[in-house]
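Risk register update: the risk that structure generation would not scale has been downgraded. Supporting records follow, first protein first.
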Amino acid sequence: MQIPRAVAIVTQGSRVLVIKRFLRQQSLAGCVMCEENGAPGPDCPGHHYAVLPGGHIEPGESAEAAAVRELAEETGLRADVDRQLWTHQERGRLQLYFLMANATGTPTLSGPEAVANGPDNSFELLWAAPDEFDALNLRPAGVRMVLAGLVAGPRG
């Protein structure tokens, strides 16, 4: 059984904090995205996509605490969990998405992502609006509608 992933959703007006990624694996065999896209081998061509801050839940840690910790580790932001917003299963891994509240600080790439940041494995924090989600290839695709509905605000 795979370790569940806790994800932090931070909004600013009609935008959501995402991590824009480029990842090129050493070989096609080691790349889940190449496998999903049926890319020809043997070399992984690299993939552009975006994800929300998050990571695995440590033993004895609640999913909420993991979302708070991962957000701080990856972005330097401090926040509280408002509520669980979405649950998703991808490749057998449970992913729990939490809307954050009271975020403080300035988003700055930090932690393992800052250390690993390079030409074949890049990370960039940015605020994205719903009309940018498709172009950014925000993953998983199902979260795009959830986030768009969240930041759309009241309609009148």
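Supporting record for the second protein:
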Amino acid sequence: MIQLKSINKRYLHEHVLENITCTLPDTGFVSLVGPSGCGKSTLLHIIAGLDHDYSGEVIYKKNKKVSIIFQDFHLIPWLSI
């Protein structure tokens, strides 16, 4: 279980996420759906622990691991498999 409590994120003066509160289940899939620029990737970065510049609280179940697969493979662009 992952709980999000009052997650807020701003880029300069633009509010990207405002008061996001929800509980994600232990098993199964969760889909985030919305138009481009609505904050889906930002929320995933917060849940995965890649973004620490936000207010609110992310609570993980004990020993819970979070994984993320990026849509664009831009982490190490000079390497290939």
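Residues 40-47 form the longest helix (8 residues). On this basis the risk owner (M.S.) recommends closing the item.
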